[in-house]
Design goal:
0% strand; mainly alpha
Length: 105
């Protein structure tokens, strides 16, 4: 029994993961197209280049999806700044006696 204003977190998570994986596909395609650090040439010349492309896409998708979800959650935070944190501040006088200096002769 959740409140009506609470978002369905699973749907929210999956939507933003899908956005992250789509951004990852664009990012990896740009890396390969512009041949950044000669990764495109390396992948094209290798017989297991498809595995490198898949791993690039998967791991970047995981990072981009996580960032998408985290930003969304943080932007949905409630601002309850009605009262300062820690409550009301009241000054209190505290006596601090000075110690006598130890003299060694």
């Amino acid at each position: 029994m959740k409140p009506a204003h609470e978002p369905d977190l699973m749907r929210l998570y999956l939507r933003h993961c899908a956005i992250g994986f789509a951004l990852s596909a664009v990012f990896v395609a740009m890396i390969l197209w512009f041949d950044v650090a000669r990764i495109g040439s390396l992948v094209a010349g290798s017989d297991v280049g498809w595995l490198a492309v898949f791993l690039l896409w998967f791991f970047h998708g995981t990072v981009f999806g996580s960032v998408q979800f985290a930003v969304t959650i943080m932007l949905n935070a409630d601002d309850d700044d009605d009262e300062p944190r820690g409550g009301r501040m009241i000054p209190v006088r505290v006596a601090a006696p000075a110690r006598a200096a130890n003299r060694r002769a």
